């Protein structure tokens, strides 16, 4: 049956021939074709009628876009896609080539890293080079920098022990006599840092005769204060928790040197450092069990007897006259541990009078703290400490 077109859309049945000059559309959702007569004006600027060959050899109308059939447009679209894909592949290939030129491959990176690891120096190698600077350089600035770098390395116990093994300490110790104070200061600082809580280094330093050298520097009033402070630091590092070094300290007159610090400057921080050092040596003995091998080693330096002979207790009491609250605190803590060295106690009238004054002063300062909302401040601690010392020695 022939298709009879109208101005309304009608479905074209299967097998029906479509006359030329019709609007034709495809139903993309349900399938099938629809057709109607062309509107007046030719159906629009871009819509034309094309002749479509059917299976039976007949031709039927089919819409055209700008003179091209749908089949031609589809073919052109396929060509565009193919060219686009090719361009994309070419572009990607070019991009990959650019990336390869700009960046190294993973294998190349691993090779470079492997070479770096082979060239990386150990801490021992670095310390050997720094020692070479100390031995050969005539520039003071280079020597100072080398000492500072070595001091950084010996903070690690293994590095400090390696410095012993490679024979580095004699080179450092020789600089104690350098003409420039800053060089002496850095060399002494290095020795003190290496000796802290490190028995192998402490033993080596004692063997090299460092302790009397440091005591001589500490006792020299003409020496730079910075160098003397580093000397006291190094002495403290060498003798703490090392009975043999403490024995040598007594033999070389170390306690007398510490006393001289009081006589040279009563307001100096040297005095407080000396009190702290002696207090630490006392605490080591008070916390070590009697009869042990370690206690027997400590007994080789009759510390309490020496302190009593030198009237150390009186010097500590004098330190209470300091205007510094911190210095007073250090002195009172030392007084609490000094009973074995002070059989007469601190019950002298001047000592008790000073403690009474401090108690009144810190009571007033504590009340001021409470008024400011601080009921557990620093001055409360000092007030209680004064009371503790007074109770222990009255």
From TrEMBL:
Signal peptide: none
Gene3D superfamilies: Leucine-rich Repeat Variant
BP GO terms, sorted: protein transport
Residues in Nucleotide exchange factor Fes1 domain copies: 88-163
Protein location: Endoplasmic reticulum lumen
Family in the record: Belongs to the SIL1 family.
Protein name per UniProt: Nucleotide exchange factor SIL1
GO annotations of cellular component type: endoplasmic reticulum; endoplasmic reticulum lumen
Function: Required for protein translocation and folding in the endoplasmic reticulum (ER). Functions as a nucleotide exchange factor for the ER lumenal chaperone HSPA5.
A single GO molecular function term of this UniProt record: adenyl-nucleotide exchange factor activity
Keywords: Endoplasmic reticulum, Glycoprotein, Protein transport, Signal, Translocation, Transport
InterPro entries xrefs: ARM-like, ARM-type_fold, Hsp70_NEF-Inhibitors, Nucleotide_exch_fac_Fes1
Domain of life assignment: Eukaryota
Transmembrane segments: none
